[in-house]
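Open question from group meeting: does this chain pack into something compact, or does most of it stay loose? Before anyone orders reagents, we agreed to write out a predicted structure and look at it together. Recording both the input and the output here so the notebook holds the full record.
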Amino acid sequence: MESTPVKITDTILRDAHQSLLATRMRTDDMLPIAEKLDQVGYHSVEMWGGATFDSAMRFLNEDPWERIRKLKEKMPNTPFQMLLRGQNIVGYKHYPDDIVEKFVVLAKRNGIDIFRIFDAVNDVRNMAGAMKVAKREGAHVQASICYTISPVHDIPSYIEMAKDLAELGADSICIKDMAGLISPYVAYDLVSELKKAVDLPIQLHTHYTSGMASTAVLKAVEAGVDVVDTAISSIAGITSQPPTESIVRILQETPRNTGLDLNLLAEIAAYFAAARKHYAKFESGLTGVDVRVLQFQIPGGMLSNLVSQLREQKAENRYEEVLKEVPRVRAELGYPPLVTPSSQIVGTQATLNVILGERYKVIPEEVKNYVRGMYGRPPAPIDPEVKKQVLGDEEPIDCRPADLIPPGYEKAKGEIGDLARSEEDIISYALFPQVARPFLERRASGSGGREEVIAAIAAMVAARAAAPARPLEMLPPKMMISPWKIAWRPGRPGWGGLIK
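Structure tokens returned:
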């Protein structure tokens, strides 16, 4: 085993609470511990992107851009990392190239150092634009391979993708295992082959859902992985990442010792253990390993939200049927990796098929657009019968989807008008108009409503008591953005359910 220390990216400020607490952690609960986090010596802290952007405005009445700036003041020494969904940015559809460019520029300007860029169907055409801009702006470009299992996904295909990403200027490669599917020995083989194929640092991101995450990380370490993702123990496990402290302690007895201070990590863990209690109502109810992810390959966030959404529809008894329908729909749609937004696309269609009692009786517009090629090239051909049922005689596009989308920045700027005080506000509106406009209106009015007063009082009491403030939702959880009768809750990972 080589003697280079393993580097650690802690996901506590992004994926950990997105996976376990429905992305509801407030910035005010992050700031009191930020200076301690800055002392650890992490390779990076993943603290932005994914579902945190719209959740901040939708549920927390927070400016997502302000979160970066506030945390950067407390953590000047730790690289900040974000998850960027390629041409989807932090949203659930493809955006114009000028919006992608402006977003990346502003994210870098506000304090993002590392951009982990992926595409839901592993179509590198949808990653190239964001990679180019991030590289130009002097950021670290971590190009990601969405790891999944299917008849068309194997190590040779991932190696070819990594070579393509290296040619596009990637500074490192991430194996993004969003469902916790990678087994320890596959992790070893994949990392070994990647290290041979590309002369770039390799990072492993996985989830604990299947129970294999810690051992997969250790086998990846043996294979020479450079960086691994973990989460502080009090918000680790279940559908989050493996615990930071456990990995650090295990590696202390090896040539790849991380050098991180377990006593400092214990202080941080104690803080988040207390903070987590304030978000209990957002937890899924899953309490441990769920091996069904190995059967159905459903990511933890999608799995946990499927439970709660079926409960809301009084259809919990259909849960097992939906679980079995998901892989069937996934195969018919060309085996897309189940990651945002493809997980929502597949999950929504599977749920409709079960609840309505007839497969593809109702086909959401997002599913139609997926089949049209508007999310990129599927990993495998779409089932001809399903394609016919969805599109009729229409043929899918063969170009990069964003080539068909006109510029959007000036249009968004004109629509939002004086409510926008900055370029960041314009981009927020361009990405999530139905969410950003009410948020900017509340800010402009200065009132904010009863919830904002309560939040201020809670923060004051919490500060005096040296304890985290209780989170408050600023918008009703039933708020939907989709124009069709089936909607996703983009502020929460996974499928959103039926509108009552």
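Observations to bring back to the group:
Strands lie at 7-10, 44-49, 80-84, 114-117, 140-146, 172-176, 202-205, 227-230.
The longest strand covers residues 140-146.
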